[in-house]
Design brief:
Distance between the termini: 21 Å
Length: 223
């Protein structure tokens, strides 16, 4: 089963539970399936495990509170990233209000904690030091865009929903595509400065690397 097929199956599982009124089942499936990548997104953007962990707790609380009213105007995955981004933004605006959230259902709360612990352990052992160091030099907004497009392979319409929900979708998507190109150029410049790839005009006859590991999305850019 491909990653796209697995995501489609997960979306179906969540939606079926949601439509029959099994909110705890829907939340459990969502956190099991999407929780690790959401926490990875938060760690990548915020660059602080403790803050990302707190943002994830807020995300899980917001997901639980908003689940009954979710209208399926977008995929659940897209909605989850939107919640995560809003949770991290609120946390950064009001750092003195950070606290451990307690969900209203024990099973979902326990699962959120397991996802947090297991994912943070995995991220700490992941060997991506060179690329990780480059991304650390980007702004949080640049990292958001890079992670959503490259790591999570979201389409531009979904990215616009997450990052610019209040704007006209087509215009927002077009603006984000241009921003993404600028981020790739910035990341390439950083890689050249760090000696990870060769600069244009380097002597020796070998072609210059045209991309930076961790900045290119495998599927075609048009999607």
């Amino acid at each position: 089963m491909t990653a796209a097929e697995a995501r489609a199956q997960l979306e179906t599982t969540i939606r079926q539970a949601h439509e029959r009124g099994d909110l705890e089942g829907a939340a459990t499936a969502a956190l099991s399936g999407y929780g690790p990548e959401i926490l990875g997104f938060l760690v990548g953007v915020l660059r602080d495990d403790e803050v990302a962990s707190e943002a994830f707790s807020q995300f899980a609380e917001d997901l639980w509170k908003g689940l009954a009213g979710f209208a399926w105007r977008c995929s659940f995955r897209t909605w989850a990233y939107t919640l995560a981004r809003h949770a991290s933004a609120r946390l950064l605006r009001e750092p003195t209000r950070r606290r451990e959230r307690r969900l209203e259902t024990g099973e979902v709360s326990k699962l959120a904690e397991e996802v947090r612990e297991n994912t943070l352990t995995y991220l700490k052992t992941e060997v991506k030091r060179g690329v990780d160091a480059l991304r650390a030099q980007l702004t949080p907004e640049e990292r958001e865009l890079l992670i959503l497009r490259v790591d999570r392979q979201l389409g531009w319409a979904d990215i616009a929903e997450v990052l610019a929900a209040d704007e006209e979708p087509k215009k927002a998507a077009a603006a984000l595509r241009k921003r993404f190109e600028r981020v790739k150029v910035r990341l390439r410049d950083l890689a050249v400065a760090e000696g990870l790839i060769e600069a244009a005009g380097t002597r020796g006859g070998s072609p210059r690397a045209t991309s930076v590991p961790g900045s290119e999305r495998n599927p075609k850019e048009g999607s």
